[in-house]
Inverse folding.
């Protein structure tokens, strides 16, 4: 299997998405997996949906897509996220909504690969896999060498030598690695991994550059890519749309 581009948490940020798609094309990578949250927060959700239409071999559904269709999920959001999802719902046309409604919850190609938005342990709408403790719990749902997740907007790799879902893992059984561009992560020959490519459209690791990953299962590597993009234009679009100012502000600081 050739290299696959792993994108997640685009959040209606067209400028960031275009920078990432240009980079993927430049590298000659033809397969893209999207881990959800194409919309929410950002001012150009319809363009992001259109850019990705027919381009991703897989798109799994994020909690922001869930919130479009399920008021109970939206009710659990903080005020800013809820305002943005209500704005997004008004903005999208029925064909846009329909394309999101068809996103699947899980893509399962065990024993090689599983893709979910947040956590592989159902029921999954709010689970964050962000540290060895939560990763240890999440490994109970990973019946594959690699599980791809998004949702935290922070690029990370988790590894356990345990090969069995039934194993009860504590934080000491999980090795956590913060991922950086230019330092490809090598998959271990034994055990299971949970890999997070960070966020295209709203990074939260203190680095405002758009983030995505390149997975090469044959070579056993996961490489993080970071791209500068026109943050000012994304902020201008947000303010023009009347979205909460906090959302524009956080783009500049990657928080
Ligand atoms: Zn998200």
């Amino acid at each position: 299997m050739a290299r696959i581009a792993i994108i997640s948490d685009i959040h209606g940020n067209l400028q960031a998405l275009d920078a990432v798609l240009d980079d993927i094309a430049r590298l000659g990578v033809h397969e893209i997996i999207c881990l959800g949250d194409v919309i929410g927060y950002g001012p150009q959700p319809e363009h992001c949906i259109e850019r990705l239409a027919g381009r991703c071999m897989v798109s799994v559904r994020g909690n922001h897509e869930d919130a479009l269709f399920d008021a109970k999920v939206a009710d659990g959001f903080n005020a800013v996220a809820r305002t943005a999802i209500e704005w997004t719902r008004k903005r999208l046309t029925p064909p846009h909504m329909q394309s999101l409604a068809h996103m699947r919850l899980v893509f399962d190609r065990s024993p090689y690969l599983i893709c979910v938005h947040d956590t592989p342990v159902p029921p999954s709408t709010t689970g964050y896999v962000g540290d060895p403790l939560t990763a240890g719990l999440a490994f109970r749902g990973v019946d594959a060498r690699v599980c791809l997740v998004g949702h935290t907007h922070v690029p990370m790799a988790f590894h356990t030598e345990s090969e069995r879902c039934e194993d009860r893992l504590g934080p000491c059984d999980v090795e956590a690695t913060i991922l950086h561009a230019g330092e490809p992560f090598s998959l271990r020959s034994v055990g299971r991994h949970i890999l997070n490519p960070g966020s295209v459209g709203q990074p939260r690791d203190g680095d405002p550059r758009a983030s995505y990953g390149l997975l090469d299962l044959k070579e056993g590597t996961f490489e993080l890519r970071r791209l500068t993009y026109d943050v000012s234009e994304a902020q201008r679009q947000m303010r023009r749309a009347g979205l909460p100012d906090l959302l524009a502000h956080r783009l500049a600081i990657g928080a």
User: Anything to note?
Assistant: The pocket of zinc ion is lined by residues 9, 11, 37, 62, 151, 153 (CB under 6 Å). The chain has a mean pLDDT of 95.
